[in-house]
C-alpha cells in the first residue's frame, strides 16, 4: 500500500501519548479513520473499500480488497483509531464469507416440514409468506405472529424490523437476539443514569490508574481491545480481573478474583462494604451527584468481607485488596461483559458495579468511568431504534403516551394502531410452545444454537405453523423453517453500527450481491407492500431509511439527528447523542456531573444477592458456565464455515480442573437437568475445581445450550447462561460435531470441515496446563 504524503501532515496526526493529549471531545472527533481517498492500491485494477468488521462490538476498521471483476477477495487492516491497523482472527477471515460456496442464492421453500426444501422464485416465496401471515392473523389475531431481529444488522435494518412488526404486521411481538447479549447492562444503565450506553470511550482506558474488568475474556472475545489494556499497563495502571477462569487477560492481572459463578453482586457489594468501612468513599461526590446512597450504604453493611468470601468462594483478604486498589486510585475504570450480565440477577450485578464506581467518585472523567463491552457488532445500535419489545426508535418507551404519539406522527399512523409492548425472545419461544404465537419471521439470528435449553426451543419452533427466516447461509434455525430468504452479507450493502463506545461508524458496500440475493431492507419493504402498507415502506436503500431514523431519534436521549453518512465518512465515527449537524458528538458522558435523569443525578439502587436459579444438589454439585472463543462468533453460522477458523478451533470442549482425574482429550460427559453431552476434556489449572466451561458456538449434539437453563432475569429477561448446576462423568465416546447445514444440492464445503473430527481440545489460548495432548 502507498500512503498519500498528506497523511503525514502533523495537523492530522493521531497523538499516541495520552499524557500529552488526553482524549476529549475534540481529540476523539479529530482522531477519526484516515479518509479512503488517501489510499490507493498498488495492484492494477484492485480497489480498496474502507469499512468495518462485521463481528464484535469493537468494530475494527478494515479495507476490503475488490478485484477488477467487482468481487471481494481479501482484507487489509485500516488505520482507524479504534483498532489502529489491528485485526483479530475473525476479522482477518471475515471477507471469506462474502463469496463462499455455501451462500444462499435463491429462496428456499416448503409447505410442510415433512417436505424437503426446493428453490422457489421470489414471487412464490413472498406470496406464500404473505398468505400465511394473513391466514394466521385472520384466524388467531395479529399477535399470533411475531418477528425476531438481530443485533448484527445495520441500525437502518433494526429500525425497519421494529417498524415492520408494528406497522406492517401490526403485532406487539417483536424482539431481537441482543436480548441474549447486553440487556442486563442496558437495564442497569437506564435505572442508574437514565441512558443506555458506556460512559467513556476506549481511549480513556489509556489514562486510567486502575482498570477493573469483570466477566469479560477480553483476549479472546475482544482481542483488539487488548491494546488499550496493555497501554494502561504500560503507564503503570493496576489491573483487576473478576472471572472464574484464568483467561489470557487474567493471567496478567495484579489481582485475579476467581469467584464462583453466580456470585458477582455479592462480591461487588462486599467490596463496597470495605470501601465504606475504611473511609474510602467520595462523600462530596455522593452528596452532590447521587440519590439512594443511604439505602445502598445500609445494604452494603450486610456484606462484610467474611460473608462475601463465603458466598463467592474467594479469600476475604482479596476482597479488601480489590476495594483498596480501586478506591485509592486517582482514576479508576470498570468494564464488564456477559460474564456478569448473563444471570437471573444480571441487572443487579451491573448495578453493584455502578454503586462501586459512584461511591468512589470514578465517573465522568478522562480515565475514570464505567462501561459495558458490547458483544455483537451492533449490540449497542441494535437496541436503540425499535426492534426491542419495549422500545420505539430513539430509545423511546412504547409504554409512554407522548413517545407513542411522536412515533405515530412520524410513521403516519393513528396511536390506536400502534401495538403495546411485547415479550422477550425466550418468552416468545414459550408462547410458541403454548401456540399463542403461531407464525414467526426471523432475521439475522440462529436460536437453535444461541438460545438456552435447546429442547424447549426446538419444541417451540416445531409448534409454529409457519416460520420464515432471512439469512445468507442456511443456519440450523433456517433449516427448520418453511421459507428461507437469501439476503446480503455486510459487504453487499451500506449502513451504520454503533460500537461498544456508542460511536456510530459507517460500513460501505464493497460488491454487488450474487444474482438472486436481496437486501433485508428490500425483503421487508416488499413484504410490507404485499401486506398493503407499501406507502409506509417506500425506502429505496439504507440511506433513505437512515434519513427517517435520524428524524425519529431527534430530541431523544439516543439522538442521531446530527449524524450523516458524509460526517461519518469524514470523521471515522461520531458518538451519540449528536443533536445537530455542527455537534461533535458525545464520546464521554457525565463530564458536567449530570446524568440523563430529570434531576441530573445517579440513581443508586439497592442490590441484594440471591442464589442462581438452578440449585446445586448431590446429583449436580458443580457449576456449568459458557462463553466464546477467539476463532468463532455467536452461533458459529458464519465462522464454522471458514477453514482457518475451523482449523484453529474445530470443536467445543469441556474445560475442567485436574483434580477430577481426567486427561486431556478423554471423553467427559457433562450432565445438567436439561440433558447430557460428551466433550473432550481440556484439563487445566486455570479454572475453579467446582466449575466446568464449554464454548457455545456449535449445535446439538455438541451444543452447550442444550444444557443451559432458560431462567430469566425478571427485569432484563436475559437468560442465565453463565451458571447452572451440573456434574461430570467418564464416558466412552465423544459426541461428533455436525457440519453446518447447506442448501439442497450442495455439500458441506470440505475445506472448512477437515478439522471437525479432531477429538482433541485446542492447546491454546485457554490457559495453563493445556499443552499436553495425551
Protein architecture, described:
- Residues 1-26, 737-774 are annotated as: Disordered.
- Pfam families: Molybdop_Fe4S4, Molybdopterin, Molydop_binding.
- This is Molybdopterin oxidoreductase family protein.
- Residues 1-14 have a biased composition (Basic and acidic residues).
- Keywords: 4Fe-4S, Iron, Iron-sulfur, Metal-binding.
- The structure is a single chain.
- The chain is of the alpha/beta class.
- The chain is built from 22 helices and 30 strands.
- It has a seven-stranded mixed beta sheet, sandwiched between helices. Strands 26-28-27-30-25-29 form a six-stranded mixed beta sheet, with no helix packed on it. A five-stranded parallel beta sheet has the order 12-11-10-14-15.
- Strand 4 and strand 5 form a beta hairpin.
- The longest helix has 19 residues, at 122-140.
- The chain starts with a strand and ends in a 44-residue tail after the last strand.
Secondary structure topology:
Layout: E1 2-3, H1 25-30, E2 39-40, E3 47-52, E4 61-66, E5 72-77, H2 89-93, E6 108-109, E7 118-119, H3 122-140, E8 145-149, H4 155-168, E9 174-176, H5 183-193, E10 210-214, H6 218-221, H7 226-234, E11 238-242, E12 255-257, H8 264-277, H9 283-289, E13 290-291, H10 293-300, H11 305-312, H12 316-328, E14 332-336, H13 338-341, H14 346-359, E15 369-372, E16 391-392, E17 396-397, H15 401-411, H16 425-433, E18 439-443, H17 447-450, H18 454-463, E19 466-471, E20 483-486, E21 495-498, E22 503-507, H19 520-530, H20 542-553, H21 565-571, E23 574-575, E24 602-603, E25 622-627, H22 643-648, E26 654-656, E27 667-672, E28 675-683, E29 691-695, E30 724-730
Parallel strand pairs: 8-9, 8-18, 10-11, 10-14, 11-12, 13-24, 14-15, 18-19, 19-20, 25-29, 26-28
Antiparallel strand pairs: 1-2, 3-4, 4-5, 6-7, 6-20, 16-17, 21-22, 22-23, 25-30, 27-28, 27-30
Helix pairs in contact: 3-19, 4-19, 4-20, 5-14, 8-11, 8-12, 8-14, 11-12, 16-18
Biased composition (Polar residues): 765-774
InterPro entries: Asp_de-COase-like_dom_sf (IPR009010), MoPterin_dinucl-bd_dom (IPR006657), Mopterin_OxRdtase (IPR006656), Mopterin_OxRdtase_4Fe-4S_dom (IPR006963), Prok_molybdopt-oxidoreductase (IPR050123)
Domain 4Fe-4S Mo/W bis-MGD-type: 46-102
Amino acid at each position: 500500500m502507498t500512503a498519500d504524503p498528506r497523511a503525514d501532515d502533523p495537523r492530522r496526526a493521531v497523538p499516541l501519548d495520552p499524557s500529552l493529549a488526553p482524549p476529549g471531545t475534540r481529540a476523539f472527533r479529530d482522531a477519526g479513520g484516515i479518509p479512503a481517498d488517501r489510499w490507493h492500491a498498488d495492484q492494477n485494477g484492485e480497489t480498496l473499500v474502507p469499512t468495518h468488521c462485521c463481528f464484535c462490538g469493537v468494530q475494527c476498521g478494515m479495507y476490503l480488497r475488490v478485484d477488477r471483476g467487482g468481487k471481494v477477495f481479501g482484507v487489509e487492516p485500516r488505520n482507524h483509531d479504534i483498532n489502529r491497523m489491528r485485526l483479530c482472527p475473525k476479522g482477518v477471515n471475515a471477507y471469506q464469507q462474502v463469496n463462499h460456496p455455501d451462500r444462499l442464492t435463491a429462496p428456499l421453500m416448503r409447505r410442510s416440514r415433512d417436505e424437503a426444501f426446493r428453490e422457489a422464485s421470489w414471487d412464490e416465496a413472498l406470496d406464500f409468506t404473505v398468505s400465511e401471515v394473513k391466514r394466521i392473523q385472520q384466524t388467531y389475531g395479529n399477535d399470533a405472529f411475531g418477528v425476531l431481529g438481530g443485533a448484527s444488522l445495520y441500525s437502518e435494518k433494526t429500525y425497519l424490523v421494529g417498524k415492520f412488526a408494528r406497522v406492517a404486521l401490526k403485532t406487539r411481538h417483536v424482539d431481537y437476539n441482543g436480548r441474549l447479549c447486553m440487556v442486563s447492562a442496558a437495564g442497569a444503565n437506564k435505572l442508574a443514569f437514565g441512558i443506555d450506553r458506556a460512559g467513556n470511550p476506549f481511549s480513556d482506558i489509556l489514562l486510567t490508574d486502575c482498570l477493573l474488568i469483570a466477566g469479560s475474556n477480553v483476549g479472546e472475545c475482544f482481542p483488539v481491545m487488548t491494546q488499550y489494556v496493555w497501554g494502561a499497563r504500560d503507564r503503570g495502571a493496576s489491573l483487576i480481573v473478576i472471572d472464574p477462569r484464568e483467561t489470557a487477560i487474567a493471567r496478567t492481572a495484579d489481582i485475579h478474583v476467581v469467584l464462583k459463578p453466580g456470585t458477582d453482586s455479592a462480591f461487588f457489594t462486599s467490596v463496597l462494604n470495605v470501601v465504606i468501612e475504611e473511609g474510602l468513599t467520595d462523600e462530596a461526590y455522593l452528596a452532590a451527584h447521587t440519590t439512594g446512597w443511604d439505602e445502598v450504604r445500609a445494604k452494603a453493611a450486610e456484606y462484610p468481607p467474611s460473608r462475601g468470601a463465603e458466598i463467592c468462594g474467594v479469600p476475604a483478604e482479596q476482597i479488601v485488596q480489590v476495594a483498596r486498589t480501586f478506591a485509592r486510585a486517582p482514576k479508576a475504570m470498570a468494564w464488564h461483559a456477559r460474564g456478569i450480565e448473563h444471570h437471573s440477577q444480571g441487572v443487579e450485578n451491573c448495578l453493584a458495579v455502578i454503586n462501586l464506581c459512584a461511591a468512589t467518585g470514578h465517573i465522568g472523567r478522562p480515565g475514570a468511568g464505567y462501561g459495558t463491552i458490547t458483544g455483537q457488532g451492533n449490540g449497542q445500535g441494535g437496541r436503540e431504534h425499535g426492534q426491542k419489545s419495549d422500545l420505539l426508535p430513539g430509545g423511546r418507551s412504547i409504554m409512554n403516551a407522548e413517545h407513542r404519539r411522536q412515533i405515530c406522527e412520524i410513521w403516519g399512523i393513528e396511536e390506536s394502531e400502534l401495538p403495546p409492548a411485547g415479550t422477550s425472545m425466550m418468552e416468545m419461544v414459550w408462547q410458541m410452545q403454548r401456540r399463542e404465537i403461531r407464525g414467526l419471521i426471523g432475521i439475522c439470528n440462529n436460536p437453535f444454537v444461541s438460545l438456552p435449553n435447546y429442547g424447549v426451543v426446538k419444541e417451540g419452533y416445531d409448534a409454529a405453523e409457519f416460520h420464515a427466516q432471512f439469512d445468507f447461509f442456511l443456519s440450523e434455525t433456517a433449516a427448520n423453517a418453511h421459507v428461507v430468504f437469501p439476503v446480503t452479507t455486510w459487504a453487499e450493502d451500506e449502513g451504520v453500527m454503533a460500537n461498544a463506545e456508542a460511536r456510530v461508524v459507517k460500513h460501505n458496500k464493497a460488491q454487488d450481491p450474487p444474482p438472486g440475493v436481496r437486501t433485508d431492507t428490500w425483503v421487508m419493504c416488499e413484504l410490507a407492500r404485499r401486506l398493503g402498507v407499501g406507502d409506509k415502506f417506500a425506502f429505496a436503500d439504507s440511506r433513505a431509511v437512515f434519513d427517517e431514523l435520524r428524524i425519529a431519534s431527534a430530541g431523544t436521549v439516543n439522538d442521531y439527528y446530527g449524524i450523516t453518512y458524509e460526517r461519518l465518512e469524514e470523521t471515522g465515527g461520531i458518538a451519540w447523542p449528536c443533536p445537530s449537524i455542527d455537534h461533535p458528538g458525545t464520546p464521554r458522558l457525565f463530564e458536567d456531573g449530570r446524568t440523563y435523569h430529570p434531576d441530573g443525578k445517579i440513581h443508586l439502587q439497592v442490590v441484594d444477592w440471591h442464589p442462581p436459579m438452578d440449585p446445586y444438589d448431590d446429583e449436580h454439585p458443580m457449576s456449568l458456565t459458557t462463553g466464546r472463543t477467539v476463532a468463532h462468533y455467536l452461533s458459529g453460522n458464519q465462522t464454522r464455515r471458514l477453514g482457518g477458523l475451523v482449523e484453529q478451533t474445530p470443536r467445543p470442549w469441556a474445560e475442567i480442573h485436574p483434580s477430577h482425574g481426567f486427561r486431556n482429550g478423554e471423553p467427559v460427559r457433562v450432565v445438567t437437568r436439561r440433558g447430557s453431552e460428551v466433550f473432550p476434556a481440556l484439563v487445566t489449572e486455570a479454572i475453579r475445581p467446582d466449575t466446568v466451561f464449554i464454548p457455545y458456538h456449535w449445535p446439538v449434539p455438541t451444543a452447550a445450550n442444550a444444557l443451559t437453563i432458560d431462567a430469566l432475569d425478571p427485569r432484563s429477561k436475559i437468560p442465565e447462561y453463565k451458571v447452572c448446576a451440573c456434574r461430570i462423568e467418564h464416558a466412552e465416546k465423544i459426541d461428533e460435531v455436525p457440519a453446518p447445514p447447506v442448501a439442497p444440492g450442495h455439500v458441506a464445503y470440505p475445506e472448512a470441515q477437515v478439522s471437525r473430527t479432531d477429538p482433541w481440545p485446542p492447546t491454546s489460548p485457554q490457559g495453563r496446563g493445556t499443552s499436553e495432548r495425551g
